[in-house]
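chain below, 235 aa
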Amino acid sequence: MTTTLITGANKGLGFETARRLLAAGHTVWIGSRDGERGRAAAERLGARFVPLDVTDDASVAAAVRTVEAAGGLDVLVNNAGVEGRRPDNGIVGAAEVTAEDMRTTFETNVFGLVRVTHAFLPLLRRSAAPVVVNVSSGLASVTLLADPAAPGYGYPGVAYPASKAAVNMVTVQYAKAFPEMRINAVEPGFTATDLNGRTGTQTVEDGAEVIVRMAQVGRDGPTGGYFDVHGRLPW
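prediction:
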């Protein structure tokens, strides 16, 4: 039995990924910082719930103890993320972005991902086929964002793409450090979720496809890569 933990899984892409992996036979932990919503999501799916705030050391350590006591971990999906919009839902462009905007976005998207991955590494290294999926973004590709012909070229935000580009670099470095693991970054596509005020152009079912696929990659599968549903993406 494959045991999988998904951060930020009480809704959106995380929830749909959990649903699909449960259907594929995984034992799934729903990680959520909101206890009430997390429990409700787990009950709805028939999954397990673990309180998990990726920005809090004590919360992450407690989650490790819970998952370890239940038998360990094979797959970690680092899905929790924020876009860094202002209260009016506006994207913060280069003229307005502050160091605090950057810090807030990186706290969840980068430092939170590293915090969780580092804490769960001992459990993953005990697995016969450990897998880590880092949910990135097409906006993380420097190649594409610098290309006037690419769809994301006109995106004005700074903090979010910078944080996801950092996620890609973290993915590469972890993959080199742990060759026995399959560690990849994925781009779900512009999915309608709370992250973007539901402005996305595709469904969570569409967006979860590449996450689910890479969560089930075999021991001879790719590692240290950056993928969307169609294949590899340029860095």
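Strands lie at 3-6, 27-32, 48-51, 75-78, 131-135, 182-186, 226-228, 231-232. The first strand starts at residue 3 and ends at 6.
thats it, cya
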